[in-house]
Each structure stands twice: as structure tokens, then as C-alpha cells.
Amino acid sequence: MFDLIITGGKVISGTGGPWFRADVGIDRGRIVAVGHLEDRDARQVIDARGRMVSPGFIDIHSHSDANLLINPGAESKIRQGVTTEVIGQCGNSAAPTLPERIEEMKKQLADSCDVQDLTWSSMEDYLALLESLGTAVNCMALVGHGNIRRMVVGEEDRQPTSDELERMGDMLRESMEAGAAGMSSGLIYPPGVYCDTPELSELAEVLGECGGIYFTHIRNEGERQEQSLEEAIEIGKAGGCPVQVSHLKLVGESNWGQATRALEQLERARCEGLDITADQYPYIATATGLTASLPAWAHDGGREAMLSRLRDADQRRALKEDMPGPDGGWDRLMVSRVASEANEECEGMSIADIADHRGLDPRDAVFNLLLEEEGNVGSVRFGLSEDDVREIMVHPLVMVGSDGSALSPRGILGRGKPHPRSYGTFPRVLGNYAREEGIMPLELAVAKMTSRPAARLGLWDRGLLSPGFWADVVVFDPETVRDGATFTDPHRFPLGIEYVLVNGEIVVAENTQREVRPGKILRRG
After folding, report:
1. β-strand pairing of 333-338 with 42-47
2. pLDDT at position 259
3. How many C-beta atoms lie closer than 10 Å to residue 8's C-beta?
4. Average pLDDT, stretch 135-140?
5. Which of 227, 395, 423, 487 is the most exposed place for a label (fewest CB within 10 A)?
6. How far is CA 336 from the centre of its chain?
7. Any idea what DSSP says for residue 61?
8. CA-CA distances (angstroms) from residue 384 to 251, 390, 504?
9. With bands split at pLDDT 50, 70 and 90, how would you rate the model's confidence at 113?
10. Parallel, antiparallel or unpaired: strands 505-509 and 512-513
11. pTM summary value
């Protein structure tokens, strides 16, 4: 007798091949049969007639490191059909970390969960903590380059000494041995913005030795994207490790139409022997902290040093001169989240509107808001071309990744107006781009969410509906699946995702999430 049979559905296996009608039998967390199972008994049956049955979606680019400690149910992700998240992206991971950084994180979490037992420093400690809490989704972790640089060099704008670089390599190796899948860099954020190519190349050698992957938010996604992609390629070649280009895009109207060039650059690197791929989220807006709008030198020495510069009249004047603003104007940069109630009215407003309302130059409006909120301001920037998004999306080297976090409509994770990608990425690809626009078959869209990221991560028993694989499964309605979240109303679950199974256990049933946490920590090796 099976634990569960999903009957009568149109099975999308995850290979990219056409769907076929079959039943899926599940026992002890794994798929044990795919075929006609009418004569087999099961403890539970899901009737999937008129529905698609696919592997669970793998979010290859997620920022849920801290959020999973607050809300292990990962609501905004599991309701999309995401069954695995790859965390620790853009150079910033929960571990390894310094004690004072844990204390800072605890202060942020204190009003939403019991943080007394949240203590860790190493990657091994963090993964063990996450495992003990239990999560609704599977998790795989990366090491943040920014973390290990911050621990050894600090927030200063300087290069590490040879001894410091060796210590960074040792920390990276220790995290890899604890099960991390690779290292991520965020080269527009401090302290990653201060590093040079040789530093990353030497750390990439450690990745190569450990069998890890180099994930990178490249140094420039606009006018210097070509050089920035070339740097990523150089680092991968130097380290002998695979490269994953995070959220591939062309930012700024003056750079629109360059998607073909960027994709050809990746293709050439593969022809030269480098295992390089990319991921993408399906929106025309980016999102990050408002502090990223400041010149790199503003961050030298850390957050307090940055805020001190904003208070100093001379340095503030220099910042204004060195801060051209977003391509297309300040009306394209929206405040998505603030820390205090005093500025909640700014959430959902553009910097242009805030500046006009306050009678300020837009740069002064940015500076004042950062000071008032002690640097804790989120932003969304509308700077991408829909044509570029489509061209990148259909390319064989590109997978789907949200670049979002596990959020909830309730509590601290329901605050503000965050980028809707945290709630809508995967249903948006299925509903808007595959079904409505028809830019690719549904089966190919599913492959970009399942087997392709699984293969990139070395998850050889996930990402396909095949006997022996773990039963991470999504049942969705191909006629109604779509994203519900918008930029003005982002905390909305998608439509059409009816059942989600993680390791054979039902987490979402008939559009309702259950209070179960069957996720596993997936370690490299």
C-alpha cells in the first residue's frame, strides 16, 4: 500500500518533455511509481483530474536566511509551489557570522519570535539550528563572501593582507565542509564592493577544491555589465568552479536591448569550457536597500560611518555631487519599507514624490530618510525592459529564481510594500509568460524551475517526477495559475497552486497551508 497516490493528472516530469497522463505513487517520502495505478491502494488519494502535476519548484536564488527563523512555514514561498530554497545570496548569509551581528539580528526578530535560543556563529551551527526548528521547505545554503570578509577585514575599503586572505579561505573551507553548496558575492554592496578580482579568484580556488559553485551578483548590471560578466567568467576559470550569475538583467533605459550580447557572452564562456549559467526573476523592477543608491565610498567603515557622512555638511555635499540618481528619474525609485511608524506614509511612494512633498532635492530626501530610519529602508527600482526580460527568460542557460524572501501577510514579515517577487515569481512565469504570452511551453517553464536548478546544485534525487526521487510535488491548475501580488498590494498569495508536497508530506491542500514542517537541510556532497 502506498502512503499517497496522485491520480488522473497531466504529469509534467520536469525534463522539459511534453506532459502525459499518469498517476504518481508516493511512499515513505519518495516517488515509487509513475503510471496507471488504478489497482493500487493508498492511505491518501489526491484527485488531480484537469490539473498539472509537476516536481516542486526550486528557488535557486532566495534571501530567506533570517526569515526562516521567524516563520519556518515560509508562507509566500510554499504557496507558490516552492519546495526548496537556496539561501545565502548576494554575498550575505546568516553564517558564518560575528556575535555582534547575531545580536543585531536578534533585535530585529525580537517582536516576532522567541530569540533566546537563536545562537550560532558557524555554518554548521546555523544549519543545525534551522534543522532543529524545522521548515516547510527544503533549504540549501551558500556562504556569503561579504560575511567572511567582514569577519576578517571589517567594513573598510582596503584589500586583505595575504594572511587575512588565507583566513578567509579557511573560513570558506570550513563552511563548505559543513555542507554549504558554494559561495555568493554581492559586488555592489559593502564590503564586497571593496574587493578586487584576485581576492575572489583565490577564494574561487577553494570552491574548486571543495566542489562548490560561485554565485555572483556582478559588479555592475548597467553600463559596465559586459566587463562585470567578464570578471565573473575570469573568477570561475581561475578557481576551476562553476559560475551562477544571479538575477541576470540590464538595468537602466540606456542599457535596454543588450540582452542578446550578455547571453552570447555566457555562451562563449561555455564554449571555452566554463560551466556557467544564470537565473532571473520575471519582473521589470529590482529591489534592494536604499543605501545601495549611495556611492561606494559612503559605506567605508560600516553603517555608522555612512550615517555620520550623511550628517556632515561637506561630505553630504560631496555625496550629492557623486550621486547621479537612477536612469530615467527619481520617480522610478520607490520606497518599499521603513523601520519606524513615523515614515510609514513613505511606503509605496517614489523618491520624486517624497522630495516634492517635503520640498527637498531628491538626494536630500534620500539622505534624510536614511538618517531618520538609521539606514533601514527598502526600495524598488523600475529600471528593466520587458523585451529583455522575455529574451533572457527563454534562453537555455537561464533558470527561474525569485531573489525574494519567505514572507507572510501577518506580523513583521507582512510589513511594507516589498517587491511582489516574494509571492509571485513562479506562478507569474507559468501564468503570464507561458500561458498568456506563450513565449515558451509550460513544460519548459517547469524544467527551468525544477530539473535544471536541481542539476546545477547537484541534487540528483530531486527536480523530476521519477521513481526513487524525493516526492517534492506541485499540483496546479494550468488555466488559472497566476501571481496575485502587485507592487501596490504585494502580500497576496497566487492563484491555482492547489497542492504542494515536500518530501511526500502534504503542506498545501486545496489552497490552504497546513502546520507541518517536513523540509530538510540539503548539504553539499
Report:
1. unpaired
2. 98
3. 17
4. 98
5. 227
6. 17
7. S
8. 5, 11, 39
9. very low
10. antiparallel
11. 0.95
Residue 79 has pLDDT above 70, yes or no: yes
**β partners of residue 58:** 84
Lookup: cell for 435? 500561458
Helix (H) or strand (E) holding 333: strand 333-338
Task: Give the up-direction half-sphere exposure of residue 238: CA atoms within 13 A in the CB hemisphere.
Answer: 17
By residue count, the chain amounts to 525
Query: Does residue 96 have a cis peptide bond before it, meaning omega lies within 30 degrees of 0?
Result: yes
Instruction: Quote the CA–CA distance of 444 and 402 in Å, as a whole number.
Output: 17
Give the integer Cα–Cα distance in Å for 92 and 187.
11
Name which of 167, 243, 169, 244 is nearest 209 in CA terms: 169
User: How many whole angstroms separate alpha carbon 321 and alpha carbon 38?
Assistant: 72
Q: How far apart are CA 137 and CA 519, in angstroms?
A: 4
Among left, alpha and beta (phi > 0; psi -120 to 50; other), residue 403 is: left
Mean local confidence (pLDDT), 125-139: 95
Residue among 388, 379, 387 at smallest CA distance from 332: 379
Segment 178-208, tens digit of pLDDT: 999 999 999 999 999 999 999 999 999 999 9
Residue 434 and residue 18: Cα distance in Å, rounded? Answer: 14
- As a whole number of angstroms, the distance between CA 380 and CA 272 comes to 37
Residue 329: partners with Cβ closer than 8 Å, 6 or more residues away: 352
Nearest Cα residue to 427 out of 64, 15, 59? 59
**Cα separation values, 106 from 65, 100, 134, 180, 373, Å:** 13, 10, 19, 23, 18
Can you list the domains of the chain with their CATH numbers? 56-286+384-459 (3.20.20.140), 288-382 (no CATH)
Q: What percent of the chain has pLDDT over 90?
A: 90
- Listing DSSP states for 362-429 in one string gives HHHHHHHHHHHTTT-EEEEEE---HHHHHHHHHSTTEEE---B----SSGGGG-S---THHHHHHHHI
Is the pLDDT at 114 greater than 60, yes or no?
no
180 torsion bin: left (phi>0), alpha (psi -120 to 50), beta (else): beta
Residue 491 cell numbers, joined: 502580500
Rounded Cα distance between 129 and 134, Å, is 9
Distance of CA 488 to the CA centre of its chain: 21
